[in-house]
Amino acid sequence: MRPNEMTRRVMVGSVPLGGGAPCVVQSMLNADAQDVEANLEQIERLQEAGCEIVRMAIPNKKCLGAFEEVCKRSPLPVVADIHFSAEIAVEAARRGAAKLRINPGNIGGLEKTRPVLDAARAAGIPIRIGVNAGSLDDALALRPDLSLPEKLAASAVEYVRFCESCGFEDVVVSAKAHDVMTTVRTYRLLAQEIPQVPLHIGVTEAGTLFQGVVKSASGLGILLEEGIGDTMRISLTDDPVQEMRACWTLLAALDLRRRGPEIISCPTCGRCQVDLISMAKEVEARLSGVRAPIKVAVMGCVVNGPGEAADADLGVACGKGSGALFAHGKILRKVEESGIVDALMEEVRKFDQ
Fold first, then answer.
1. φ, ψ dihedrals at 287, nearest 5°
2. 99-102 and 78-82 beta bridge pairing
3. 63 is in an annotated binding site
């Protein structure tokens, strides 16, 4: 069995996480924590983009009222993100959180966690133990005999053992660093040391859109291919909706989950006699509202046409001033260059009904 088939099943609202369930996609709100409507509007956009669980920071007690209202009205399960205050975590559980996220490095120690476990148990919700490289507790951070992945794993394992000793097993673990291979090595250790615990995977502080997607896809791609990861977030310094696009594109590339079309397009070369870059971007934009999990190819010439993209559901191979529309490698008809995108979308709509 793969690691993510052996973990416990945890429910976050109505979303199953772990125990062989498909890897769950999530993001985090970045609107003002006291602005109910702004957070709900962002949740709606994230849901439309494929988000399944959303996390909301509660930086202080003044934000609890807004958090409670968001939980009541949100179409997605809302996770309370807590740092520094066990008291806020307890109150968030009472006010409708679908899951709590606490950080062992700053919550105040194991004993401070007891009332949080009691509150989560009473509410029937899980807890994510979220360890970060930048906020390890001093006792671990200063140990010279351990590598950083070993320190991160040790912190998470200590808290899991404590929770289990208290009879609380609805636990999810994350242990993130901004360095890709530190993150990968840490999760490999966790999958070995606590194989029963669902893992939330991600590269923290990955950066802006381009760098963040590359770093996250590198690390998470390795882990997912190894069967490690029950839920994921690609953290970007950008609109959270972009995180959804990146998550689903990565899952589709690994053939794990699909949501909407995949575009196959060649990089162009001197043989190309149409404006393929603009054409591919237009096709991508017009496919944004399509939900059918189809493969659509936009190819610049016959060399990379139906042959290279024979496994595509639909595609076009362009020549000078025209293109050959094809499905599963077989030519359907020729289309003038100006009508290629419209013709392609006409065929797409037949799949998206």
1. -85, -5
2. parallel
3. no
